Amino acid sequence: MLPISYTNLNSSRITRDGTASSASRYRRLIPEYFRRIFHYPQMDIEYTFWIMFYLCFNPSRVYRVTSWHKQTKNQWARDDPAFAVILVFFMAIASMSYAITFHFLSFLNVIKVMFWAVFVDFITVGLLIATIGWWVTNKFLRVSVHNHSVDQSVEWLYAFDIHCNSFFPLFIILYVVQFFLLPILLSNSLFAAILSNTLYIIGFSYYYYVTFLGYNALPFLQHTVVFLYPIGILFALYIVSVVMGKNLTVSIINFYFGFQL
Hints:
Elements: H1 4-17, H2 20-35, H3 45-57, H4 59-73, H5 82-101, H6 107-141, H7 156-180, H8 182-185, H9 190-216, H10 229-244, H11 248-257
């Protein structure tokens, strides 16, 4: 058994360093997270669908469970990639459905639409947003700690979890609901423009709201209300788009498929 003096010394060092042990544990978590992507039996599919359901109807409950996860596994981030994997699968199916609907039927065109939706809209933009959120929260929003307290920090993988959680309701609204409303949304009318733009403001406002809940669940962060500020900008843009008669669904379809509706 190690001497008491050594244990206390080591404990003090970790306390002064703040995140020494957590950083080491986090470095081990990243390879494990990606390794489990290729091991379906290790994924908790039932729990993932539970999260997806409550993200749409009671997202605050999801982050209460996140707090319990911290207590049991001593990390905020999920160690199970099932959520991201299932969401990528859903997005691939949805983007393929759009490609078929708009007669983008060649194999390369379908792959192009799927690639753009999954690897640009979700993954690349998500990595960027998660990194910005991770940097901003650790740099500006952490609560000052006392000299003998452990200095906690936001895990990058948790920031990416927040993006995944926030993106799922947006996916439901702007990929699924919008798809079934296309006959209405693509009509040349003011009602179609208002309905389309309303879907977009609801989807992106919900994204920022769930993002706020994710960071607000961390007890060592303060002023997390800043993640709600973009919603005000969205409402201003919404009013401008309605006044101008801009239909965002038409604009997005034109961008993705390269033709004018």
